[in-house]
Amino acid sequence: MAITAGGLLNSTPASIQQTLSTNYLDLSSASNAGWGQQYVPDLMEKEAEVFGPRTISGFLSQVGAEEAMTADQVVWSEQGRLHLSYTCTMTDNNGNINGSLNGGKVTITDHIDTNADYTSGSHGIRVNDTVIVANPESVIKALVTEVDGNVVELAPYGVADCSAITDAKTDCVIMVYGSEYAKGKKYLSAAAAEADTRGANEPSFKSYTNKPIIMKDYYEVSGSDASRIGWVEVSTEAGQSGYLWYLKAEADTRARFTDYIEMAMLEGELGVHGTDAVDNFLGTAGDSTGTQGLFAAITSRGNVTSGVTGVNAATDLAEFDAILAEFDKQGAIEEYMMFVNRATSLAIDDMLASMNSYGAGGTSYGVFDNSEDMALNLGFTGFRRGSYDFYKSDFRYLNDKATRGGINDAASANAIRGVMIPAGTSSVYDQTVGSSIKRPFLHVRYRASQTDDRRMKTWVTGSVGAATSALDVMQIHMLSERCLVTQGANNFMLMK
User: Who's near 488: CB < 8 A, 6+ residues apart?
Assistant: First the structure.
């Protein structure tokens, strides 16, 4: 009797018992694992898998955060902060501070983040802007009187000079808070040079790139052992009838390859063309090797915390609130996914239990279409702290001794305990489509064209089934070409 296949079945039945890539029944796929367990229970005696709903890739797949790409790299541009704030050094107009009656000047040394240029006058501070300059000793409010490249001259309000700042300082911050003009004056100070004409501030962008890597694996079975191939007759909801085939032993190879896809998106590192041994081995022509995974992206462009260790619940709460304060500095993201190891998960549970009230009460579950059941089914529990909603999940990859759990044991000082990922989307300029679009903060890009979808490609060669060569074997090949886009990494947190 034929079995009716549900809509989540990932293959198309063949009219005859023929082993094709299109009618392969992938029992390791999360989309039809339930179907396989229901109708083919004797095939599911498998060890616990790392890959599953409690994974970053599993979550991204569930929320549809995967998108095709056609180029060799993905390029996106992130807009800098709306408001202008910079680090700077400060002196008076004579190179000193004390005793001067000549106002003061600052030399801009950096932007408060890495998303804007600050040199050669492109920093955005203009004549007639009103600014605040602060250091550990004092706070000064002043009017900008002249701009020469990254040197900004000031006239402080209320006093003749900047002597409130005791010495030439290298730890100052300058922030624009407005402007002031005399009656009837245009965008140019009466005492300013023509070169100081006020120009419009353009939005600042910084471009980031990542490149996909090609991952491969295969499973082989001889013609003599091909009897291990199993067949399932199905009837689809569209009225098609036919056969799907499976190999139980091949499922382990496929499950491991699927895990590798997830792990590569987490652990990937970018190489440098012409300088590293990987490039020499692969012989890549003009291309860098590797891809930037999630951990590397957050380390270089995001935030890292060593807090919430489980030593003391009260201390953990203070450290968790410090994380919130850091998020407050970065943007307005108020929903976060948390993938943490067991110890950190328990530390958070103990931290919340030490409070008078906590838990799912008030949690919106917006990222799960406001469905608490959906969140729980995917292995997430929600809680609210301040104005933030968090969805926490134990991350098996960080616990398993054969994966990151073992690496963490060997290098405990640099152990990765978890990651906080902002939910929702952000607006970026995509150079491929040539416009600003909204995309998830974290999403996968995979190579695909009209003729070849390389998200997860499977094909069969040999003389068994496919009959593509004289080899007395069946070879099942697997390939994926993809990369991870970590967008707005300043809103992410890596727990080490």
Answer: 78, 331, 422, 426, 428, 441
